[in-house]
Amino acid sequence: MRTRSVAICVCVLACVGSGALGNPEARKEDLSGCKLPHGELVIPDRNTPEGEVGFILKFSDGTLNPSPLKAEERPRSAGEVLARIAAEKAGDLVYSSRFNGTFVAVSGRASDLGEKFLYELSGIPLQRPQPVQSKKEQSASGEWTSGAIDGIADGHCYLIEAADGKFALVRVVQKRGRLALIQYVYQPDGTRDFAIPKGAIVVEKTNETEARHVDAAQGKVSISAIEMRDYANAVKSHGENREKIVKHSITLISAKGDDVYSRRMAAIVLGQLRAVDAAGVLAEHVNDDLAMVSLRSTVANSYVCAQSLIDIGIPGARAAMSQMEADAKSELPKGKLADVLVWKDRLENRRNLFTLVVLKVYEEKLARIVLEDKMAASDDPKVKEAYRNAIKAFPDIKAWLPDVKQQTTAPAATGPTR
To answer: Domain check: are 245 and 107 in the same one?
Structure first.
């Protein structure tokens, strides 16, 4: 059997009453010589921030697991919770800070073996624990919490029957308010025979607000439950903020008006966020408003939108090709010749920018294959012509690639437009 080492998670010591933290000289054993799976960890009350990460100790792998019940589920009793934990194989032991500290065995069976060290139980025939229940915690239906031992004590050892029918010895090193520091040894062969050699007895420091231990097997520092909670909250906040930013940026870039700076910034942000869901909007607004503003002054909605599509990657290139096809199918506007010529210039420039996106994302060899495949797959002569012209424009468009972000004027159209 290989030794298991469980790193102690970071914990903030919750002081109760006068601020005492239980036995001022909490002593623990050096279990490094034990060949049975064993571990040392802080087990939290389920109603603490640490408990949100995991509070059910599973002896077989030394993990602390979260409740298998979903947040919206409301169990009718503690017995129902334990039954669900057992069914989901989530773990074997739960700690509660109520009633001066309580252990709840998921199997319903546990026994207090008195104040001693784990090695003192080595080689001693141990009786199977009897079913136990809390003497203090009762549900609204009158049911006493099964598997619970109230008032667990520092220095005491407990024999716990695991949910899988195997057994573990647990020693309470020190109760720390809503947390408890424990050591345990697990017997995977199903017997109650524990071979635990005597190791050095060391005093656990009690005045630290953090306890970081290095996993001896891997040399890795554990990540605290508090850090994981903060990380989870930060990820959630980032996701919510990102969704808002993408939504507002799409609104800004789609707005009709002369606020070029805001629209430019919105396009840049969408590229930086790799906002795949905004690719279609960016493609739609590439080279926007060129019918009203000269080519040299419309950097905002030509280059930045194209660059953002490049930043988004393959979804951006696909959006560029979809918009290229839509442009090719668009109807020639009715009106003055000058308006028609401007319209043609605008579509030519947009097609060149879409081609630029495809070239930058796929690189020339693959870009050519992609555009040729798109041309072969289309039945529309206008679309085929657009892709054919895009491929012909490769030599000229490649010249824009190195400094696309730094350009201050829009590129000239390649080839005749009138």
So the answer is: no
